[in-house]
Write a structure and sequence with these properties.
Length: 327
């Protein structure tokens, strides 16, 4: 059995089996060097001697864009990096800062992962100084979207994250909320929502006073060339779901077809959202997302990412923004 399959925690089971699983998971077996509890401002200012953070070449709020309101635009930040290496370093620093702030404020850091290239971009978190400085024991990890496949399947976002990140940092296994891969897509989505409700009741997950939906500290999104985020695809009715926290699809245009996904009201209730978008294949969708000429009738899913509170930060590279004329 693979390392990722060995951790069989599901969202529903997590709260009742905390102590048993936390002592036996690959994640909890990681022997990090003794953690130095640094204030978040210090964590944020540290850089790795091997790969110094190189400032992004451009950073701004968009002139208009998704959501349309001036307030929403003012909370959008575009970071463009010369190399993926610098993006990864900056992303780790950003996450360490947010983690430090959330732990200081609420005693927990709630973060949702996507699949795809994002996980590779998180690799610096497994290295010094982040491995030692981040309070991993306070992390609660969710999936923005997940493919409905067994957890040890090559298509599983859980496996991807476990192999690339979660098996290398000491987050208690009971705080890693995988979907129940024995259920149908519908059943898994319902159970995941129930799990979130339980964690809201337990005070682990906050609730947005503005929207009434759960307010995770950080939502990490990738974007497809078609402008999809999570498993919210262009033209699919799921993008208009406004009641459920977690929903499902059985006809995803990106394989595999069956997935569960956070809905837009949940995504947009987050305290922070990071959109990690690299490569020339994404340039068209990035261009549309930053265009001033938007109409609500043809919004790409990425253009529907618009928080009620908090900041949306784009982590990009030059190829991804190559169609933005003002840069
Ligand atoms: O499970 C999934 O398919 C993802 O969550 C999906 O939303 C992904 O983030 C984008 O497709 C971007 O993927 P890339 O970064 O690999 O292009």
């Amino acid at each position: 059995m693979s390392a990722s399959a060995a951790v069989s925690s599901t969202c529903a089971a997590a709260s009742s089996t905390t102590s048993r699983r936390s002592s036996s998971s690959p994640a909890s077996r990681v022997q990090a060097t003794p953690r130095r509890s640094l204030p978040s401002r210090l964590v944020a200012s540290r850089t790795s001697p091997r790969s110094p953070v190189v400032p992004p070449v451009y950073a701004t709020a968009s002139a208009g864009g998704a959501g349309g309101t001036t307030a929403a635009a003012a909370r959008k930040k575009l970071l463009i990096f010369d190399a993926e290496e610098y993006l990864a370093e900056s992303l780790a620093k950003y996450m360490a800062r947010l983690s430090g702030e959330a732990v200081a404020e609420r005693g927990a850091f709630t973060v949702a992962l996507s699949g795809g290239s994002l996980i590779k971009a998180l690799r610096k978190l497994t290295e010094s100084p982040y491995l030692e400085a981040v309070e991993w024991s306070k992390w609660h990890v969710f999936w923005v979207d997940e493919r409905v496949v067994p957890k040890d399947h090559a298509d599983s976002n859980y496996k991807l994250a476990m192999d690339g990140l979660l098996s290398k940092v000491p987050i208690p296994a009971s705080q890693i909320y995988a979907i129940n891969d024995t259920l149908s897509a519908e059943g898994a989505a319902d159970e995941y929502e129930t799990c979130l409700k339980q964690l809201v009741n337990d005070g682990v997950v906050a609730i947005s006073e503005v929207t009434g939906f759960p307010k995770l500290d950080l939502m990490l999104l990738g974007m497809g060339p078609d402008g999809h985020v999570a498993s919210l695809f262009p033209g699919h009715p799921i993008v208009n779901e406004n009641l459920k926290w977690v929903s499902y699809i059985k006809d995803s245009p990106k394989p595999p077809p069956e997935r569960i996904t956070f809905t837009f009201p949940l995504v947009n209730s987050s305290a922070h959202i990071a959109l990690v978008v690299t490569g020339a294949g994404k340039a068209g969708a990035v261009h549309k997302a930053f265009s001033d000429k938007q109409s609500s009738s043809d919004l790409l899913p990425v253009e529907m990412v618009s928080q009620q509170e908090g900041v949306l930060t784009w982590f990009t590279d030059k190829p991804a923004v190559s169609m933005l004329s003002s840069i």
